[in-house]
Amino acid sequence: MIRDLIIKTPYNPGERLPPEREIAEMLDVTRTVVREALIMLEIKGLVEVRRGAGIYVLDSSGSHNTDSSDANVCNDAGPFELLQARQLLESNIAEFAALQATREDIVKMRQALQLEERELASSAPGSSESGDMQFHLAIAEATHNSMLVELFRQSWQWRENNPMWIQLHSHLDDSLYRKEWLGDHKQILAALI
Questions:
Q1: pTM higher than 0.70 for the full model?
Q2: Helical residues (DSSP H) of 13-162, grouped into ranges
Q3: How sure is the predictor about 62, in pLDDT bands with cuts at 50, 70 and 90?
Q4: Distance from C-alpha of 43 to C-alpha of 56, rounded to nearest angstrom
Q5: pLDDT tens-digit profile of 173-190?
Q6: Residue 56 pLDDT > 70, yes or no?
Q7: Out of 3.40.50.1820, 3.30.230.30, 1.10.3720.10, 1.10.10.10, which CATH number does the structure's domain 2-57 have?
Q8: Which 3 state secondary structure label does DSSP give 54?
Q9: 73-192 is a CATH 3.40.1350.10 domain
Q10: In this predicted structure, what is the pLDDT of residue 164?
């Protein structure tokens, strides 16, 4: 719909689009929908979102392949859909893990938390998030159910390989979120013990 707006309205490359709020009003959708659509258009090379400066048309010809019918459905999923799916999956995995976890499983979770703390302390931009992943994986493994472990791994890969997630993640301040996640992880571990 936003792509059609760019193509059907005489926007030239380099021209600025209306603000998100106006686009949302014109199309009668929420700003969240507009943001996700703009991220997809940015990935496809149709627009450039410049922080504090606006949204600029890069190519209004429609020459980019925008037919996503053959694309992997997870590549087309928005970041909020991915987060919702992971929250549903991982909260149920954690609930089941609480019933199944052994001492060894708890040790793995603690080790993952320690790694996460070290990574956060290094505070290098783009520093590894392997502690985060290992913590969630340790919870999945604590279920002792190979299907749940595989579902977790697959959902993590979908997120990490999703173009919209990657684009959104590049606009976030990782350190703030990672501190919150670490606090959440400590609470989860305390609840599992």
A1: no
A2: 20-27, 31-43, 73-76, 79-100, 103-122, 130-141, 146-161
A3: very low
A4: 13
A5: 566 777 787 888 888 888
A6: yes
A7: 1.10.10.10
A8: strand
A9: no
A10: 76
